[in-house]
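Whether sequence alone determines local backbone shape is best considered at the level of individual chains. Part of our work consisted of pairing the sequence of a single chain with a tokenised description of its backbone. This step matters because it turns folding into a mapping between discrete strings. For completeness, the protein is quoted in full, as a sequence line and a line of structure tokens:

_____
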Amino acid sequence: MTDSSVPSVLKRRRKLPQIKKLALLAALKGEMWVMSRTSPDKAASRLAALFTTPPRPPVRPWERAAMAQARYARVRFGSLGFLSVYRWQPNNPLSKGKVLLMHGFGGRVSQLSGFAEALVAVGYEVVGFDAPGHGKSPKGHAALPDFVDALEMFVAQEGPFDTVIGHSMGGAALATALRLGMSAQRAVLIAPPVYPGTYLAQAGRMLGATDKVTGRAQALIEAQYGRAFDEFRTPLNASTLSQKALILHDQNDRQVPLVEGQQVAAAWAGAQLEITEGLGHTRILRDPGTVALVQKFLMESA
């Protein structure tokens, strides 16, 4: 997704020539194929580890420029340890409200910083954090339950929030947290995925794991967190919510198909669905048209 099924070990090697990436993928597939048939428990453990290891793609120049406008702090959040927190504040002390930014798996707050600039300009305070294992927060494994836990702890310390904005898996985490009682008047979900098991299955198929191994990997992750994947079905969570909602999804998103955003919008009573074209999974975050849609939604639904 950076919630796609591409293994993180490959994503961290963006500077490698394509032929070396293909060779690395072939080696991973060979390893997984053999382990799946000779040591399925070991293969499941390996797949679970790969699936919960977020990539850390390089920071783009436009991200650095936008983040220079934010106040940065390292804040401790209980058992999650220290997370990197960013805050953009309007010049007018009479803020219209607070907006929370939540990035996706393998992402970071800076990817959503374009929204911060536009919303601060009209009087909102904007706050976001790098989830566990992401951005400038400490490295480590991370999964959807970590995002939800971090959101709940963050809102407990920083809230209440007027609006929450989430990209990809961050959107799925927001829907879960809202269903669990997190307070917000409005929500914007950008390219929200429907079900984490879909992406684990994709990763398993790409790496040559058997269905049995993929099932065991899911069971391992569920046991580790004490939470079933079914708890994070975004349309099911959305069906319980009454907040005003805007769902944004690109027609050409190759990582989270448009049909998933449509399912989330259909399940969320009164949700507004906006479909973009030619922006894919991440360019949608910095497109001026997308930013304008979010700004308009907040202004009209205030």
About this structure: The chain has one domain: 61-198+222-300. The domain at 61-198+222-300 is CATH 3.40.50.1820 (Rossmann fold).
